[in-house]
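Q: How do we represent a protein-ligand complex in a form that can be generated token by token?
A: Start from the inputs.
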Amino acid sequence: MEAMIRLLLAGYLVAAMTGCAGTGTSAAVPRASSPLPTTSPSTQASTPAPIACSKVATPGVTEGPYFKAGSPAASTLTGPGVAGTSLLVTGHVLNLNCAPIVGALLDFWQADGNGQYDNNGYRLRGHQFTDSQGAYRLETVIPGEYPGRTQHIHVKVQAPGGPVLTTQLFFPGSPRNSQDSIFNGALLMQVSSGASTTANYDFILSSE
Ligand SMILES: [Fe+2]
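Then emit the structure tokens for the protein with fe (ii) ion bound:
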């Protein structure tokens, strides 16, 4: 029920259209304002056991020009007709004490394997909430590069009733990481490629 109420997060506004652009330039301009979704007061149940973490808050980076408010509730973003190699991303949302945050919002959006965003619909866009263990699971594809940008996945993360963290996730070894001014090594996922590609990242929020 809590999640249903909080689906009214459509209160997002489309923020500044700067940074992350496919212009060939790599100027990163932080957002001037953050659209705050509507959230209910925290109703966290019993607190799950802490998970080993760095206790260093996950840094925010620019939203970029392609965020769209009102994404569907979905943890599976890939499907028929979506270009790209399958990727499973898992992890947790934690506080600074490494305690999992239950019911935290994660709103993902990204380019497909060809570096293309769906700016008309909601392909490769979706939001979800962490489970009773503070965990999330995203089934998607490995994003392609596009002019000026290395491979990345955008996300907004918000503890119930807390501020919104807008950031991006990056891929270790991506050849253009070093050329992308938005790239931040603290946002590298742990990626393993076997029969399928999986990645892991735990977000640490500075405030709830
Ligand atoms: Fe982007």
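Residues 20, 64, 66, 149, 152, 154 surround fe (ii) ion (CB under 6 Å). Helices lie at 2-6.
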